[in-house]
Amino acid sequence: MFKCDYEGVAIEVEFTNHAIIRVNQRGLNHSAVFGSIVAALDLILDLKNNDEFCIIDKEAECTTVCGMTFQGETLVISVITVIATQYTYTKVGQKMIKI
What is the pTM for the complete model shown? Predict the structure, then answer.
């Protein structure tokens, strides 16, 4: 789990077991995924509680699929999976953030 404060908001980033498996299979490290999330925080903070979103990071050549919830004053971002950018797809209603 990664923790940080951004514009006065406490943020925690957690990885599902599935996401950990995919990060390892794709030769990424958790810090690269966390970096994608940090780079997109301005846009993430515009989303609503319980939104699902994906971050398309062309530099890292991966797409990170996440969910977000507020637990009290803390924004918890849960990494659901990480996929190669060329295989990116979104579900209906899922927000897309390109960085």
Answer: 0.89
